[in-house]
Design a protein that fits this description.
The complex is a heterodimer.
Chain A: H1 9-13, H2 22-32, H3 36-55, E1 60-61, E2 74-75, E3 78-79, E4 92-96, E5 103-105, H4 106-119, E6 123-126, E7 133-138, H5 140-152, E8 168-169, H6 183-193, H7 195-199, E9 209-212, H8 221-224, E10 227-233, E11 238-239, H9 241-251, H10 253-261, E12 269-271, E13 277-279, H11 289-293, E14 298-299, E15 304-310, E16 324-330, H12 335-355, H13 362-369, H14 371-378, H15 401-414
Parallel strand pairs in A: 8-9, 9-10
Antiparallel strand pairs in A: 1-3, 2-4, 4-7, 6-7, 10-15, 11-14, 12-13, 15-16
Helix pairs in contact in A: 2-3, 4-5, 6-12, 9-10, 13-14
Chain B: H1 21-25, E1 30-37, E2 40-45, E3 50-57, E4 61-63, H2 64-77, E5 81-84, E6 90-94, H3 100-109, E7 113-114, H4 140-155, E8 166-168, E9 181-187, E10 192-193, H5 195-201, H6 204-210, E11 216-221, E12 224-229, E13 247-248, E14 255-261, E15 276-282, H7 290-306, H8 313-320, H9 322-329
Parallel strand pairs in B: 8-9
Antiparallel strand pairs in B: 1-2, 2-3, 3-6, 3-7, 5-6, 9-14, 10-13, 11-12, 14-15
Helix pairs in contact in B: 2-3, 4-7
The chains are: A alpha+beta, B alpha+beta.
Chain lengths: 415, 356
Amino acid sequence: MADKHYPTPMLDELENGPWPSFISGIKRLRDDHPDERIRKVTNSLLGQLEHSYETRKGYWKGGTVSVFGYGGGIIPRFSEVGDAFPESREFHTLRVQPTPANYYTTESMRKLADSWEKWGSGLQTFHGQTGNIMFIGTTTENTQHFFDEINEYGWDLGGAGPCVRTAMSCVGAARCEMSCTNEHATHRHLVNNFTDDVHRPALPYKFKFKVSGCPNDCQNSIERSDFAVIGTWRDDMKVDQEEIKGYVAKKGREYLMDNVISRCPTQALTLNDDDTLTVDNHNCVRCMHCLNVMPKALTPGDDRGVTILIGGKRTLKIGDLMGTVVVPFKKLETEEDYESLVEMAEEIIDFWAENGLEHERCGEMIERIGLVNFLEGIDVEVDPHMVNNPRQSSYVRMDGWDEEAEKWFQRQAEA
Amino acid sequence: MADMREPIESGCPDGFQYMHPTMRRNFGQWKFHDDPQPGVLRHVANNGDEVYTVKAGTQRILDVFTLRTLCDIGDKFADGYIRFTIRSNIEYIVDDAAKVEPLVKALTDAGFVVGGTKNSVTSLSHTQGWLHCDIPGTDASGVVKSMMDELIGEFTAWNMPNRVHITTSCCQINCGGQGDIAINVQHTKPPKIDHNLVSNVCERPSVVARCPVAAIRPAMVNGKPSLEVDEKKCICCGACFPPCPPMQINDAEHSKLAVWIGGNHSNARGKPTFQKLVASGIPNNPPRWPEATAIVKRILKEYKAGAKDWERINEWVERIGWPRFFEVTGLPFTKYHVDNWRGARASLNASTHIRF
């Protein structure tokens, strides 16, 4: 235990205060871990991190590290200040796919901890922003050993680089009354169909699936995924009038008027004189607000399915994009439903792989080529649910108008 | 080296094997939920089954000792099942009301913080920072730890008009996401180029392609192929740095923090919204980042005082108007707050809607 510690006066400040401190955790590994390798590597890590705090700069650089058979899933890190802090010179992270909505038993977790202690630094994150379990800090050689070990008992790497990434989904039907779909099945059907594209980066850039069970979108799929699946329903929401009356009795009419009725974005709610609620379901946009306020009284309808939005992403390169509605409603119940969902994802990824520029997200490609060209590419017809409003600019060539209008009437007749 | 071994490409594992049996049994059969106390949820199924969720904040970057402590608590008090939220809170789910208090006590005694439900400020989601990212301008973990120390009372209570999601990111690419309040890095100077290294390290065409404003051109410098930046055009986004580390964007002095507010991905009431800039030029000041925390606290104070029940930060500001926001928070409004890209006209006020 007599290792020489790098001084960490700035990091020590992060041990003050009531919130749990990651610095105290790393120090515990440095001071108390029985394995000398872990003590040394975390000491070195703290030395480098303190150096970053002093100089306000990062000192990791990427590289190429992979396990046999895969091309991605590892975040390689080599230290630029390895001479000063040699024990963490190689400090790679493995991205491991969690279950949908991140369920674990303590037993499964202990097993992972044991393996990571054997081959890595003893530091991990639940979870990174892409959704993976991040096992932070190991050497090139031990990367392979750790992967081999956990892969044998059921865990696989997630995506890194230009590939299909690890998916994320909300807690969903396992615990939430708002859930309108089986997030678990949707998540696994989608991402596991693309296992090859997760492990072998060969796409223009990253492609993310995220699944939320209702329009509250607790998973932020709309902004943080290229392919967002959000549960919804299309029949009438269910109203328990006795519960509505109970709510009025408890909170008062004024509270209800101010917090529910007047907050409805489409004015679809009426509080009747007898303290019952009338819902104009045809005008309801399933925003979820009234259900959130009165979960006991209001429930999604029975004809449930999903809305699919394509092209959400964060900042780089043209700025933030929300996903755009491409499928307003789709049933997801039978195996055939899931198959057609997966086929649609294949169409989209294929089209984007062929037409996207290097380092161009799917949403950026749509912005460049226009939604209509994208829809034609994936063989989906236009729908007024896809726009906030129709075209404003009159500078457009419309010589195919009659033909397109005919298509609309035909589709209407077939529906 | 290890021997070659064929990987088992199992992909995303089935979560049902790790799910509490009461949840498994009632999958898709939940009727409603309520909130017995901060950090605790109760969900009731159609058949009357109940589960209680106890949520706690962690340090996110866990060492195996802490992880085992969390497992010990799970074994002793929570039937051996756990899950994590998108914001790295841990959740224990039990099916017996009597198990809640001992669980809350065990978590609290072990130094974790029970809370983060309903109209609280839940834990900040964040990125890797100096600990492990290759392009970080700051240490998101440190910012979060410092900020949560000061916001802990808002995590453990239901003081806010609605839930508040705060995020941090360690560079402008912004993996940390967006939230009601987002603390992001803002580079304020163009990259410094080490011309001796560019030709060895960077694929020049892909770096040129990466620039969103076409400010980067190939150039010969000192007889070597390199790149040059038109500094007048450069928006200092740092997009060139990941594929070309010799184009150093991070700077001890000029990499600042900026605060953006009003990101809301929920469809509740209004359509989802993006975050908007409110403050910049905030020093990137380790180890405690007090200036950033002070601004966040100021915004939260006014939101708490001014918003109506259920209003998220974006809805509050939309109702009172941006001039009032800058007035009540005392934050300066500058020319940098006026958007100036091709589509910016949509953000300008084309009406006489003015509050006096």
